[in-house]
Amino acid sequence: MRITIANVKFNIPFMFKDPEDIRNELRSMLDVDWVSPKKFQDKFGSANLSFVLVLERKTENLEVKGPTADKELVDFAIWLPYKKINSSNNYRLSYISHIEEGMKKILSMYGFDLEYFNAIFLELKKKEIENG
After folding, report:
1. C-alpha angle 109/59/24, rounded to 5°?
2. By CB neighbour count within 10 A (0-12 exposed, 13-18 middle, 19+ buried), where does 86 fall?
3. Does residue 57 register a pLDDT over 90?
């Protein structure tokens, strides 16, 4: 099983620079072979999992939508709260935290072991603090 990240940005000006480097690093960290938990397999078979990150100004609270699924791919959309991210002290850390919260909602729902995901997000946040 593969886990991927995709993103949707609406073509409007944002008040902060697109944290594309964070998404790229997260993609890289997730690019391993995964064993699907039984609960996920029972529902979706051998399909891969994709998180679609959506960032637009009108989204006020984190929302998780989906899934849309076929035999090969299960998509969940994570709508990130633009205003909360923009008004935070560190928009990059806030961005990471909201992605983490959205992904963990989905992963825990389908029985994934969150230990590796916790480590990934801890490392992302640590790097951000060190580089910030």
Report:
1. 65
2. middle
3. no
